[in-house]
Amino acid sequence: MQCIVCHASKNFIVFRKTNKEREIMDDQLGALTVIFTEFYYWVTVVLMFLIHVGFCMYEVGASRYKHHQHTLMKNTMVIPLVTVTWFFFGWWIYWAFPTGPGIAPSIMNDSTALITDESTFSAKWYVANTEFMAVNLGDRISGVFWAAFLLFSWTAASIVSGAIIERITTFAFGILAIAIGSCFWVIDAAWGWHFDGWMLKILGYHDAYASGVIHAIAGGFALGVLIVLGPRIGKFSSSGEPRNIGPRNPWLVTVGLFLIYTGFWGFYAACNIPIFDLGPEYGMEGVTYWTATNIYVTPTTLSGITYNFLMSLSGGLLAGYVVAKGDPFWTYSSGLAGIICASAGNDLYHPIQAMLIGAIGVVVAYKMHYWVERKFKIDDAVGAVAVHGYAGVVGLIICGFVLNGYPASGYNVGAMWDGSTYASINPLGQFLGAIIMFGVLGMLPGYVIARILSAFGKLRIPREVEIAGLDYEIMEDDREAEKAVASSTR
Amino acid sequence: MATVTNWIDHLSAKEVVGAVYPGAGSTETLLVILGVVFWIGWHVITARSESEKLSRLARKRHGANDHKSNITDW
Asked: What ipTM is given for this predicted complex?
C-alpha cells in the first residue's frame, strides 16, 4: 500500500523535524502559510474559550442559590485538570490509537500496532517529555493544534458537568472530567476523526464537526454517570412524577448559551485545516489544489460551513421554539442541538438540508429527554444528554443517509470492512459509529467509573449537605463578615 | 541553564536547534515527574479537605431553607 501521507507531508500542518519546517519557511510564501496556520488555530482557541465561559454561566444560572459557588468552581476546575492530563497523556493517545490498536493498519507504516514509531504523525513526537511539547523554533503548529484539541476536551468534560450539578463531589467530577476529557473522547477522536482512523476505513465513518466525536460521547458518558448518581432530592414525587427544577437565573443561562454559540464558531474553524495543497497529498502528479479541508483532509470551504452553521442553528431554534412552546431554556438549547445534529455532515450539506436536519434533531432530543426522564427517573439537570447525546446520535445516523456514497477520506477509496482502504460514508457505518460513540466509549465508561467511585463512597455528597446547600458554610462566613462590616464605624 | 546565549550564532548555524527553553535536552523527564507529582498531590489534598468539609456540614443537619438566613443584608 502506498503511504501517501508520508510522501506528501511537506506542506501539512504539523512539522516536527526542526529543519523540515525551516526548508518550508525558506521562502516568504511558505513562511506565510505556516505562520498563517499557526495564527489561525490560535484564534480558534481564543474563540473556543468562550464555550467554557458560557458553560460556567449556564450552569450557575441553572443551579439553585445555595449551590452556586460550588457549581461554578466544579466546572472551572475542568480547565486545569483536563489541561495537565491532556499534556501528560491525552495528546499522545490521539496520535497513538488510530489503528485501534489491532483493528486496521495505518497508512503510514502498514501496522495495526499503536503508532509510536518514526512515522511523520507518530505519537512518539507527543510524549510529554519530548522537545516538541514546548517552545520549539522548528515546530510552530503543534502547540496551537494541541490547544485546539484541548479546548474540545474541556467541552466534553463540561457537557458532563452540567447534567450532574448540585449532588456530585468535586473529587468525583475531577476524575470523571479527566476520564472523558483526556481519555475516552480522544480515543474516539483517534478512531473516528484522525485521517488514519480505523472507523473511517472499516465503517466509512464521517463526523466532520463532531456530532458523535464530542457530543454523542459526552452525552452518553453523562447518562452513564447519571444512572449511578441518581436524581436531585425532590426531583421526583413519591409517585415518580418528575418536578421541574427550572433555572434560577434564566438570563445568565441565556448569556451562557449565546457565549457557547459564539465559541462554537471557533470550534467549527478549529476542525478545519485552513490552507492545504491536496494535489501532492493525494498523490496527483502535477496537480496543485489549494483549499481548506475538514479534519479528514477532504475539501470544504470556511464559507460553506458558515452557511450550514447558521442554518442548522436556525433550524434548531425554530423547532425548539415550537416543541418547547416558547420556553427560553429549551429554545436556546435547541439552537445548540440543531448545530450539533447537523455537524456530522456540515462540511458537505446544502444549507437547507442543514436546517432541516437541525430541526429533526431537536424534536427527537426534546421528546427523548422527557421520555427518558419519566421512564427511567433520570435527572439531567440541564438537558445535556438530550442536547449533546441524542441530537449527536440522530445527526450521525441522518448523515449516513444524506451523504451515502461520499468517500470518507481522500486516500485509497475502497469497500466497507476492508480495513486497508477507506470505505464510503453509509447508513450502517454511521449507525455503528453512533453506537460506539454514545454507548461503547461514552455511556459504558461513565457508568463503570461512577460505580467504582460510588462503591468507595466518593461519588455523591451526603444527603444532609445536598439539603443544606453546598455553599452553606461559605454563606454563613459571609454573613458573619457582613455583620462585622455593617457594625463598624471606622 | 540557558540554552541560547547568542541568537546570531544560534540562528546562523547550519542546523538550527529548535528547542530553546531552559534545560532543553536534559531536564524534560524530570519536569514531567515534577508535574505529575504536583497533579496527583492536588487530588490528594483537595479530596481530603472536601471529605472533611462535607462531613462537618452533614453533621449540622441544616434544613433546606436555613441558607436563606445567611443571605447578607444588601
From this structure: 0.94
